[in-house]
């Protein structure tokens, strides 16, 4: 049987990684777990996020995936190192791909990062960026109001514009040329964020970049799927399946219209 | 002693990878070999390119590098698999990073590739793109006139515009939204290529993308350089050292103004 790419998130944010993996690697089978019953992870203490992430990994590892993608910045900051040392398959987080893409994209070296309270407090982007280049200047900002609007399925409205505007206003004083969307929920709000920041600021989606690096790593390990059979993806969530499925269908759109998908609800912990 | 990133090319084209590695990974030491005495590789038969690449790798491996980057599309197409199986350090070619970046960047799925006769004849980009996604449409075009103008240090002039225009004219009929610069010499001509193709076509530099993936692979192997000591880079070429040094200084510009560099001439074969 074809080994899958396992992707996990606190809720629906990781679907932004799913969408890009489906687009960039259409032959790959995906098994997704969204911990919607316990989302958001952003305000939770790091040890709780580590525990929850460990439970999801224990669930996903049963499917013998070829790679595990922690498609949540908060969980990556809290759990990537521990999970990597615990399982034998490669584990990919979303923070380093975003950091590498920002360093590749910036011209001025002034990079902004937005994320949850947990991600920003961890300093994980600053560490990752500084590890690559000591010359980068970083402006970090926690935007705790953004995940809840995405988790309830609100992507584009006057209310969204107001919340995004208010959340990002401190970032507008710093002359950055590149902004890392350091939370996989934020690409749902990409258009509004671009409008608020202006056209001269390049937006880096940690989700898109993680899909690309998953492709790099699978290629380098000789693990890319081949053949012409369409994969059957599997989606699991821990909370309300109707809301989850509706957001997934809306976001993934045409990419799941013609392919078989299995939907399941599973409680953890 | 700090292990270096070894980078090789048929001539000066690989300096486009060097420039990006210096920018994205300023702590990393680089050892470069440009086979300027035998450039261009593009029109040569594949077995000759394989032999020349093997000789350069034998030279570079003496320095105990942590990774070898074949910063030449022609040499990647002809020699990547064989070199990878022959040495124990990771070997990175320029074709797959460019292919992955194009799949990530395209919206319409219509991707153009320009390269040398050797690269285009090998079909290596088509194979790499189709391995990732069966839905990509690819238009390939050999542009044999472009490498010689770069190798003689001519980057921007009316003559360059005319040659680029003539070389790319067959590509303009195909409604692509993304063009892979499938030769590391072409970023020297980037501005002219962008003018000829128009602003709606995204240019993908296999050089930039390879630097980024070198970063990914070193990170995943725990091999990124740390510390605050500036590395001393080493540049070797097989032909005229004055022309090589002048092109390198012009292209790398401020990035080598304040750092120590060792220049050498070495004949191979």
From TrEMBL, chains A, B:
GO molecular function: glutamate racemase activity
Superkingdom in the source lineage: Bacteria
Keyword Cell wall biogenesis/degradation: yes
EC number, as in UniProt: 5.1.1.3
Enzyme class: isomerase
Reactions catalysed: L-glutamate = D-glutamate
Functional pathway: Cell wall biogenesis; peptidoglycan biosynthesis
Residue positions binding substrate: 9-10, 41-42, 73-74, 184-185
Listed SUPFAM superfamilies: Aspartate/glutamate racemase
A Pfam family: Asp_Glu_race
Active site: residue positions: 72 (proton donor/acceptor), 183 (proton donor/acceptor)
Keywords from the named record: Cell shape, Cell wall biogenesis/degradation, Isomerase, Peptidoglycan synthesis
Family: Belongs to the aspartate/glutamate racemases family.
Function: Provides the (R)-glutamate required for cell wall biosynthesis.
NCBIfam families in UniProt: glut_race, PRK00865.1-3
Name of the protein in question: Glutamate racemase
The species this protein was found in: Paenibacillus terreus
Gene: racE
């Amino acid at each position: 049987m074809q080994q899958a790419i396992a992707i996990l998130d606190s809720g629906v944010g990781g679907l932004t990684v799913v969408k890009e993996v489906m687009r960039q690697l259409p032959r790959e089978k995906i098994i997704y777990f969204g911990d919607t019953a316990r989302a958001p992870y952003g305000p939770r203490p790091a040890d709780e996020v580590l525990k929850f992430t460990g439970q999801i990994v224990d669930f996903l590892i049963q499917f013998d995936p070829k790679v595990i993608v922690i498609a949540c910045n908060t969980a990556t900051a809290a759990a990537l190192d521990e999970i990597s040392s615990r399982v034998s398959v490669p584990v990919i987080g979303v923070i380093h791909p975003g950091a590498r893409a920002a360093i590749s994209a910036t011209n001025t070296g002034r990079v902004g990062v937005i994320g949850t309270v947990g991600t920003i407090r961890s300093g994980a982007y600053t560490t990752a960026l500084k590890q690559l280049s000591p010359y980068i200047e970083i402006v970090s900002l926690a935007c705790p109001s953004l995940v809840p609007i995405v988790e309830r399925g609100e992507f584009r409205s006057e209310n969204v514009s107001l919340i995004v505007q208010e959340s990002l206003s401190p970032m507008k004083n710093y002359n950055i040329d590149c902004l890392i969307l350091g939370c996989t929920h934020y690409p749902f709000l990409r258009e509004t964020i671009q409008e608020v920041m202006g056209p001269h600021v390049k937006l880096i989606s940690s989700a898109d970049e993680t899909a690309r690096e998953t492709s790099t790593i699978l290629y380098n390990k000789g693990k890319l799927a081949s053949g012409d059979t369409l994969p059957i993806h599997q989606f699991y969530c821990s909370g309300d399946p109707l809301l989850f499925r509706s957001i997934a269908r809306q976001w993934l759109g045409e990419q799941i219209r013609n392919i078989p998908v299995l939907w399941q609800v599973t409680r953890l912990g």
